[in-house]
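Support request, please re-run this one:
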Amino acid sequence: MLKKITDSIIYVGCNDHEIDMFEGQYVVPNGMAYNSYVIVDEKIAVLDTMEVKETAEWLGNIEEALDGREPDYLIVHHMEPDHSASIGAFAEKYPDAVIVGNKKTFAMIKQFFPKTEIKAALEVANGDKLSLGTHELNFVFAPMVHWPEVMMSYESSEKVLFSADAFGKFGALDVEEEWACEARRYYIGIVGKYGAQVQAVLKQAAELDIAKICPLHGPVLEENLGYYMDLYDKWSSYTPETEGVAICYTSVYGNTKTAALMLVEELEKLGVENVAVSDLARCDWAEAVEDAFRYDRLVLATTTYNGDIFPFMKQFIDHLTERSFQNRRVAFIENGSWAPVATKKMLKYLEGAKELNIAENNVTIKSSLTDDNIVQIKKLAQELAENATSADDACAEEAAAKKYECNICGYVYEGDSLPEGFECPLCGRPASDFTQVE
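Re-run finished. Output below.
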């Protein structure tokens, strides 16, 4: 697929409609786009490669775009194989082209593709520039957005940011669909854990005059960029995007489901406009996680099961905490026939989540709904309807926390100080390799 982004920048990426699950876990009914770009100037740069199934089509796109010329550079922004698997094929076809990356890039090339021979390589540092003639690429490192080697590049003459996976989305480019829904599901599922790192990149981006954003997935963004920046700021600061309630439940014999749906009815009677309901045993879990992060209130409803909680709920909470779920009001509905402990267990699994405001009127059901339970559900609905989370208040304490960045991989620890004996959870480096950041 070829498309002119500007007179000098050409899209040479590919659509994939054969894929059913991205990264082996995210359902992609509208496929995926793997994006690659060419900048044509005195020197020619190809930006990023392709998933291996699309290698032949991609090389054909490049050849057509260059119209007899050969590329001088291959810029490798990100080493996940959906963007790097064709490095070897490119190097074989264009052996004189210089492969451009950073120190971590070339280490990963050796790990992923040990048989790939690179004739010429250029290792760049954060802030380095590469002139192509009238175009100049400025390299901006973005560690842990969402891999440690990730970098972006800003082309200053046409004000284009090549943003790696940031601002990407699920879905092929030949399918018309709203950007925000699949971009939100993509961001929260894949990048959501690394909010502090995304915030750091947004601060750098704020200093650039950007006219277009060219991500590695999804469409090129070129209108109302403030809208996309604002959403990324909300998502990466864990600020609720929309006032509303996400209700996520599991149910064995239908009684917990009945309670969850009754709560929906009560909330709607009270004028709560946005209520999203997910049956965790049957829904797309990534959609449910997306709703939990999108809205300011979350209700978890499940049964006591083998002295614990129902497996789908346990897995769901793990998905939340793995992605740094925080700054939300959370309520619980539990069901247990002889020893209900589901709320206690859910609270335990959420212990690591920051700034959660726990509801007062949580509901305990013993087998099936009673009149008292119905009263409890109405009280819970009233509480949830009256007490939307204040995003500013919820984030105030978080904003005041100190941050320490790993000098090796870019991981950011938040807290008053680094604990004694602390090691980076990503690269294992000690506290001495961390620097306090603003």
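The first strand starts at residue 3 and ends at 4. The radius of gyration is 24 Å.
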